[in-house]
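Bumping with the actual sequence this time:
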Amino acid sequence: MKITVINGTEVKGCTYHIKESFLETLRDDHEIVEFYLPKDLPYFCCGCKNCFFKSERLCPHAEYVMPIWNAMLDSDLLVFASPVYALRATAQLKSLLDHLCVHWMVHRPDDRMFGKKAVILTNAIGVFYSGAQKDIATSLMWLGVSDIRKLGIGLLEGVIWNELSDKRRKMIISKTKMIAKKYKNGYTAHTHKGIKVHLLFAITKRMHQAIAGKEQTLSADNQYWADKGWIKR
């Protein structure tokens, strides 16, 4: 199994240790590639719309975005690890999700995403990690991923890994590895579009078909859908 890991921070704190606990179970048997933000994507989306109107390869940050996107397409499992900043995912991770919006179903989805699995690992003070999970899960769903698991860790004792009690660290590691073992022990069957993704695809297909019928020259999005055979010219 091929795994792509997106780290929403370069800081090797609690998020890093949670992610490492997850990967430790899988490292020996699977191929893993990791990206660390913002090192591997140092720019925010600037809203130029080149990706929407022309091609994602004309994005001014394509040299950073495309390697991450291609790795995601080449993987079976996607792992997103993000601490919670201001109740949401980190800004650098949101920047990646913004850059990938061109591949949402309302634009130019890649059908390879329909068979992916994803795991979202987050941590926060208390239990306020659902907002960060929602940021990531929403984008993944619009990208076509149906099989999404979430693990949120509440760090009531503090945010410094080495300052957590041994009991607390062992509990976090055990909980994380329990999820990882589901993938190690054969949870690798091909995933098909779930109900939500199937419905979104059907709605956007009708939308693209309706708009394309009024265009003399197809937009980049509708030309893509026509080339895929999803809509009629």
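The tokens above came from a reply further down the thread. The chain has eight helices and five strands.
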